[in-house]
TrEMBL record:
Domain of life where this protein originates: Eukaryota
Protein name, UniProt field: Membrane-spanning 4-domains subfamily A member 13
Species classification: Eukaryota, Metazoa, Chordata, Craniata, Vertebrata
Length: 173
C-alpha cells in the first residue's frame, strides 16, 4: 500500500514537513485571532458567544502540527529508527487531532444560539474563521497519513533487509 515498492524522495518529505509547519503556524495565528475576537465581547442580554472549539482551544492544537513537521524534517536530516518511530507517533497523533478538531468544528457550525446584537458581528466572524479552519483539517490529515504510510512501509522494508541476530544464527546451522 502506498510507498511499498518505491521510496519517497528526500525533497518530498521535506515539503511535507514544511507544509505541516505552515499549517500549524496558520492554526496558531488563527487561534490568537479568535482569542482576541472573543475576549472583546460585551456581556449582553443573550450573553456572549463561546463555541466549543474556542473552549477546547482546538485551533491551538496546531502546535502539534508544527512539532510533527519539525520531526518530519529531522527524520530526513538525521535518519534513525527512533526518530522515524517518534515521527510516526506524532503524525498519528496529528491525524487523531485533525479528526477531533473537524468534528468539533462541524458541531459548532451546526449549532448557533442567539447572541446579543452587540456580539453578533464577532460571532459571525468567528464562525467564518471556523469554516476556514475546517478546510485545513483534511489537508493536515492527508499529509500526516501520507507520511505515516510511507514511513511504515519504509520501516517494514528495513526490517526485511536487516535480519535479526536470531535469524542469522538459525541460517548458519
Amino acid at each position: 500500500m502506498g510507498c511499498g515498492s518505491s521510496k519517497i524522495s528526500t525533497g518530498d518529505v521535506l515539503a511535507l514537513g514544511a507544509i505541516q509547519i505552515m499549517i500549524g503556524t496558520f492554526h496558531v495565528f488563527l487561534w490568537y485571532f479568535i482569542l482576541i475576537l472573543y475576549m472583546g465581547q460585551i456581556k449582553g442580554v443573550f450573553g456572549t458567544y463561546e463555541p466549543i472549539t474556542y473552549k477546547t482551544g482546538s485551533a491551538l492544537w496546531g502546535i502539534f502540527f508544527i512539532l510533527a513537521g519539525a520531526l518530519t524534517i529531522r527524520s530526513v536530516r538525521h535518519p534513525s529508527r527512533t526518530v522515524f518511530i517518534c515521527t510516526l507517533a506524532m503524525n498519528i497523533l496529528c491525524m487523531i487531532l485533525a479528526i477531533a478538531a473537524a468534528i468539533l468544528t462541524v458541531v459548532e457550525l451546526c449549532t448557533f444560539k442567539s447572541v446579543s446584537y452587540r456580539n453578533y458581528g464577532q460571532a459571525k466572524l468567528g464562525r467564518e474563521v471556523s469554516r476556514i479552519l475546517l478546510v485545513s483539517y483534511p489537508l493536515e490529515f492527508a499529509i500526516a497519513l501520507t507520511y505515516s504510510i510511507c514511513i511504515c512501509s519504509s520501516l517494514d522494508q528495513r526490517r526485511e533487509d536487516n535480519p535479526t541476530q536470531t535469524e542469522e544464527v538459525e541460517s548458519t546451522y
